[in-house]
Amino acid sequence: MGGCSVLLRTDRAQPPVVNPMDTKSRLLEALQREAMTLDELAVRTGVSPQTVRYHLPTLMRNNAVRRVRVGRKVYLVNGGPGGHDQRRVLLKHTVLRELHAWIVRHPGRRQVDIVDAMEARGWPPSTTQHRLQRLEQTGIVHVKRKGGNVTYTAEGSL
Fold first, then answer.
1. 34-38: long-range contacts, CB 8 A cutoff, minimum separation 24
2. Is residue 108 part of a domain?
3. Which residues pair with 146 in a beta bridge?
4. Burial degree of 5 (CB within 10 A; 0-12, 13-18, 19+)
5. Which of 1, 10, 26, 73 matches a 20 to 30 Å C-alpha distance to 121?
6. Full-model pTM
7. Does one domain contain both 93 and 150?
8. 71 vs 74: CA distance, rounded Å
């Protein structure tokens, strides 16, 4: 009887089988510590950006992850209990962090003083005012309006 025999090669390394829940858990665990961009999350967890993109809709649908836009960047944040305060996410933006730090070092300064100081750094006045408004709206800086004077203060650490 003629038969066919099949030889199986067992010397090839087989890729490890990864449970999708393990991947989601790793993504969520990383976002518990800090907000990050999709690419940062991929690098931090050792998961490809495509895999992160694949899992994001499910995580967002379940309110486990939220997107927060800061300038041109989109950060992924923990959407559950103990999630990131949007103020901390906003301060990941370098120029907003720089403006916040200046106000911390110079509390009670008038808006005109802040605009002048940032203009010396090359920021147009309208840009500084827009950034001050963003910091005010999220409660990062506190504004006092008295007559025609507007003064700013900020807490040192968030």
1. 34/84, 35/68, 35/75, 35/76, 35/77, 35/78, 35/84, 35/88, 35/89, 35/92, 36/75, 36/76, 37/73, 37/74, 37/75, 37/76, 38/74, 38/76
2. yes
3. 149
4. exposed
5. 73
6. 0.60
7. yes
8. 8
- Output the domain CATH number for residue 98: 1.10.10.10
Residues 26 and 78 in one domain: yes
Question: Is 13 part of any domain?
Answer: no
Domain that holds residue 149: 89-154
Half-sphere exposure of residue 117: CA atoms within 13 angstroms, side-chain side: 15
**9 domain residue, yes or no:** no
pLDDT along the chain (158 residues), means of 10: 55 56 87 89 94 94 86 82 67 88 94 96 95 87 89 79
Q: Does 150 lie in the same domain as 102? A: yes
Q: How far apart are CA 45 and CA 30, in angstroms?
A: 7
Domain count, the chain: 2
Provide Rg for the chain, Cα atoms: 24
